[in-house]
Design brief:
heterodimer, A: 276 residues, alpha+beta, Thrombin, subunit H, 6-stranded antiparallel barrel, disordered N terminus, B: 162 residues, mainly alpha, 77% helix, disordered C terminus
């Protein structure tokens, strides 16, 4: 019934299918760039989004199951190490909590706005073309273009598109990502000192950091913190690696080793801003 | 006619389920395999409709610029037609080499074109991603071969009298 004998007869005009879909695709891309299809996209993602997220979740569960079975001995070792680390972090957390309270009081005192941020927990569904992630939360939860994805204090990316049930996040490794940052010293005695301002952007080799002052004293291992109006707060990107040593230049360049392994992420948080 | 329309709709939904499942599990596209398999099996008009609908739906669900998958499909279909002018279709193994290269090009073009159409910057491909795409293409080609074998065996049984 599907492959009818009559259909299988060689149609002399079958080559027309290629120019037709080529022209149709160019037309769709042009109209899409004008924002013509927002209503259609919203409707389709509302109807088919649950199907997509359900089947993706099923695939993730299957992947996790087999991954667990294969790596069970590693997980046991990691679990024991993490128990020790958690005990150490609980001690540090008490100190950070005091600093956080002080920071909040100072912000209100300086009238920087009583900004309460909400965080939406999202599960990573897919890694697309190595520069983007798709997560399972979308505009239904209030996520919109420009929202920031984080893990704790680490910067993960910026939401560039949001459907009803899914969102697409651009990672710092994307070549179209340009963010202002500053570099903090990694020395324990000097950890609050800003050594230099810089710019980070993605490249085929990783996250590049540029415009580092020549005499700033930046060295490999120093902490890179994003400080850009697009992000809105100071978030850790990673540490400096591969710093250039060319004395003939006026600025230095290097790479950033991310604080978070973007391709190993299963969950992250998306910040929704509520400004009072 | 109504049954064909209903079958097409159900087929599209099933395709989307499989596409999202295998895309998440193995970064594997079922749609390109299905469309290249059907390209010379069904009427070209029906193929255009199925190709247009399925690629548009996938673009919306994967939050890609609408039309990019269709554009890449058009390019690889053109490559397939050109390669079939060189490679004889009756040779069993050789006739699947065009499929291999077409599917490989599909993954490479998607990696390059989606960031360009989204952000204006060409995507990044590495030797590792090219190798992975080649492995996926080989698996996809083998699947197309097996499905073709299954379909031709199934149709040969039409001669059986029940």
């Amino acid at each position: 019934m599907l492959f009818n004998q009559e259909d299988k007869k060689k149609d002399e005009r079958s080559w027309l299918s290629i120019p037709i879909i080529l022209l149709l695709s160019i037309l769709l891309l042009f109209l899409n760039s004008l924002g013509t299809f927002k209503g259609v996209k919203s409707t389709v993602s509302y109807v088919l989004g649950p199907i997509y997220t359900t089947s993706s979740n099923l695939a993730i569960s299957l992947k996790d199951f087999f991954s667990t079975v294969v790596n069970i001995s590693e997980f046991r070792e990691e679990y024991n190490e993490m128990k020790l680390q958690i005990a150490e972090y609980e001690v540090d957390n008490l100190e950070y909590q005091l600093l956080l309270d002080e920071n909040s009081d100072l912000k209100s005192q300086l009238e920087l706005g009583n900004r309460e941020d909400r965080y939406i927990l999202a599960k990573v569904l897919d890694h697309i073309e190595s520069e983007y992630l798709i997560v399972n939360q979308g505009s239904k939860k209030g996520i919109k273009q420009g929202d920031i994805a984080v893990i704790g204090d680490a910067f993960v990316g910026i939401v560039i598109e949001s459907g009803q049930y899914t969102s697409k996040i651009r990672l710092p490794i994307s070549k179209s990502n340009f963010l202002e940052a500053y570099i903090l010293s990694s020395d324990e005695e000097d950890s609050q000192r800003i050594l230099s301002r810089a710019v980070i952007n993605g490249s085929s080799d990783g996250i590049r950091i540029e415009n580092i002052g020549m005499n700033s004293g930046v060295k490999n291992g120093d902490i890179v913190v994003v400080n850009d109006s697009k992000v809105g707060e100071n978030l850790i990107v990673g540490t400096v690696v591969g710093l250039s040593e060319d004395p003939a230049t006026t600025t230095r360049t290097g790479y950033v080793s991310p604080a978070v392994d973007y391709y190993d992420l299963t969950n992250l948080f998306i910040r929704i801003e509520n400004v009072d | 006619m109504l049954i064909k329309v209903l079958l097409t709709i159900v087929g599209l939904l099933f395709l989307i389920v499989l596409e999202s499942f295998f895309n998440t599990l193995f970064s594997f596209s079922i749609i390109v395999m299905a469309l290249l398999f059907l390209i010379d099996k069904i009427d070209w008009r029906r193929w255009v409709i199925i190709a247009a609908l399925s690629t548009v739906l996938i673009d919306i669900l994967l939050l890609r610029p609408m039309g990019v998958t269709m554009l890449v499909l058009a390019i690889i279909s053109l490559l397939l037609y050109i390669l079939f002018l060189i490679v004889p279709k009756k040779e069993v193994i050789l006739s699947y080499i065009p499929y291999l290269f077409a599917i490989w090009l599909y993954y490479i073009l998607l990696d390059l074109s989606v960031p360009y159409l989204q952000d204006g910057v060409w995507g990044t491909i590495s030797w590792e991603s090219i190798f992975v795409d080649m492995v996926i293409s080989i698996i996809s080609t083998v699947i197309i071969f097996l499905i073709n074998l299954l379909v031709s065996n199934f149709r040969s049984k039409e001669d059986l009298r029940l």
